[in-house]
What we know:
Elements lengths: L2 E5 L6 E6 L2 E7 L20 H14 L16 H12 L6 E2 H7 L6 H9 L12 E2 L12 H12 L10
Parallel strand pairs: 4-5
Antiparallel strand pairs: 1-2, 2-3
Helix pairs in contact: 3-4
Amino acid sequence: xxHHTTLPTPVGDLAVAEDAGALTAIWFMDExxxxxxxxxxxVEPGGSELLGAAVAQLTDYLTGARRGFDLPLxxxxxxxxxxxxxxxxxxxxxxxxxxxxxxxALGDRALAQPVGQAVGHNPLAVVVPCHRVIGADxxxxxxxxxxxxxxxxxxxEERDADSAGRLF
Length: 168
């Protein structure tokens, strides 16, 4: 059964959902961005071993104490989306890429727009690091959680990464 918990963060509350032993969604909550269907009832983080681990790892990441995640994930996308999300999971902490570079990695730079759509439909914000995708000119481009959150996440990672050449 799907259920979720919430986690207060420096950039607003996150809803974290699990189903059948895997994380299925992480969503930035806002008044104008209600929780979508499919998150199930809310539980306390301690009510689920996986949600407790997810909250602990997300908290550590958001305080700069963790660079990656060791959590079971289930994204439920189509084959193209899954290939894009796999590329995102391979992006190192502190690195960025572009939609065009992801499309080229998939074999066709003309796929940049569909790549952007797949990135925008990533169901696991932060853990599948779609915030690491920037515009070809180095600018910050759309982020479902809002550009202020994308800026925060990139700045968090940049503290330890080589910031030479970053344009944001």
